[in-house]
Amino acid sequence: MIGRTSMLLESNLKLKALGYNGDLSKARSFFDSMPERNIVSWTTMLALFSTHATVSEAWHLFNAMPLHDLVSWNIMLAAYAFNGHLKEARSFFGSMPCWDVVSWNSMLSGIIKHGSLNDALQWFGIMSVRNLVSTNALLNAFSQAGHFAEAKNLYSTMPEHDIVSHNAMLAAYGHTGDVEEARCVFYSMSYCDLATWTILLSLYAQNGHLVEAKCMFDSMPQQDIVSTTAMMAAYAQNGHLKDAVDIFNGMHYLTLVSWNSMLDGYAQNGYLKEAKILFQIMPMRNLVSWNVMLAAHAGNLDDSTRFFGGMQARDTVSWNVLMAANTYNGHFVEAISLHMEMKMEGCDPDDATFISLFFSCSHLGDVICGLKYFVSMLIDYNFHATKQHYHCMVDLLARSGFLHEACTMIEEMPFMPIVDDWICLLGSCRSYNVPELGAYSGIRGSRSYNVPELGAYSGIRGIELNVDSLPRANRENARFNTLSQKKKDVRRTSSGRASAGAVESIPPSHNSEAQLADMNSSPSSLQVVDHSPSQASGRWQPQMIPSSGEREGLHDWQARKYQGPDEAFLCHGPKCYRETFFVMVATYLGVPSPA
How would you classify residue 251: left for phi > 0, otherwise alpha for psi between -120 and 50, otherwise beta? Predict the structure, then answer.
């Protein structure tokens, strides 16, 4: 009996060794020749099939097993989920006799990889048992999808963290450029791996902290090809091309990422001739290599179009580069046509695609087309609008003469407006000869961003603001600004001199709830629903709430919208607060909503 058990154990170990070497045919032959098998033998072979064979082959082997335990059920579930067969995975999950945390995590990982983030959130919410692996999977999903506020909220509410949690959060801060927050996470870690050092090194480099990046590189306990390539890219991104070339030439082993990083360094710094030479001598290329060279040719539209036509394969980045080249050179109609060709080739757009489309529509004066694209971005593709998208839409509306709508958009966007938004509106007010709104935008821009030249540029001297011509949501600020301007004019007259463009700082208005209700009920402007915050339920919910830095400068009535969890900010699709405004703008202008 002991001899048989020993032989079976030895056979299982040999079967597992063959599987680790990736030789499925030899493993299958050995499995078939085994005189005796147990549940370990079957599950080992099933794991090999789920990794190296097709799902159907794994399913046939699963059905041939004399008995099943929870391990075999989980292996088959993971085979469905990880290979993108989510419908079959859900059905199989429902047929399982019982579940453990591995079962739930396998489904969650499959949905994150092949499904949508909303579906992953829903699955995470119904999981009866979770562990650190579950939360880390969702944290990584938030970070990779660009939902950095939700990632930060989840990270802060996690009862425990490990190296995976910390690295995911560092990667999120790398995308947002928040160096200080990344430092706090790094110095709070009890253990760092090589990935941690490399992520922070890249974060420093991307934000121009080249000295800190070099110190980080020199302090690393060990350096590998990834960290060395990251340091090379850091030099190239910050204009130190000679140092980047020195690292590149000193590397004993070059990966495709190393070649692409050096190629991108030449292209970014304007060395097109050297980039072409390097591209020709590269031992291998991928789509990234071709896209880098396409971007290098973007300044010359004929060259970029010719290079694009010679590419054997294209992805969304390729189309985006050519669209951006057309918009940069003033070929706006051609940029929109490229979007149609892109769709016909089966290539889905991303957020950068829509920026080129909004920019083109803005310069063509086609506000209806621009708003249709915006609604399509939100509903058809379930994208979330970024600050750059908002700025493009402000520019689109303002250039097309929808000045009050553009002003309301600036006031109501969930991000802090940038000074360029007010400058854009101010320029359009001058073009369309709307002095009252121009004066208001000049004062708002100069007061919020300490740019007194905006007040002078708006030509507010001698203008009596007609407050009733403004959107009601802007009238109270306008009254404060008008009163301040009158006081300033009196002081200027009495002193006999006028300080060019000096606009005094005016405290933000304090509106009562009754006044707010009256403002929001204006029939002359868009109806923007004021979502008051609900009480926190104690359960973590993903939100898109401006950071404390973005809340600085908001009026009290605006800041109150961001004081805690609010169902209006839950990003479960395009119907969250920040997109609702644009859907209303589209409706107001007669743009039909997509089916």
Answer: beta
In this prediction the pTM is 0.62
Specify the CATH number for the domain of residue 109.
Answer: 1.25.40.10
CA distance 509 to 56: 66
Please indicate, yes or no, if residue 535 is contained in any of the structural domains.
Answer: yes
Q: pLDDT tens-digit profile of 337-368?
A: 999 999 998 898 998 999 999 999 999 999 99
For residue 100, the model assigns a pLDDT of 93
Comparing C-alpha atoms, which of 426, 456, 420 is closest to residue 440? 426
In a domain, 382, yes or no: no
Which tokens go with 369? 């087309």
- Using the structure block, give the residue that is written with the tokens 């940029």: 335
Nearest partner of 359 among 333, 385, 380, 382, judged by Cα? 333
495 pLDDT higher than 60:
no
Q: Which residue is it, tokens 């947002």? A: 176
Q: What is the mean pLDDT of the chain?
A: 76
Distance CA 244, CA 236 (A): 6
Chain-centre distance for alpha carbon 567: 21
Report residue 555: phi and psi, to 5°. Answer: -70, 160
Q: How far is CA 219 from CA 215, 240, 425, 465, in A?
A: 6, 20, 49, 61
Of residues 464, 468, 419, 462, the one with CA closest to residue 444: 419
Domain count within the chain: 2
Question: Which of 85, 111, 130 finishes a domain?
Answer: 130
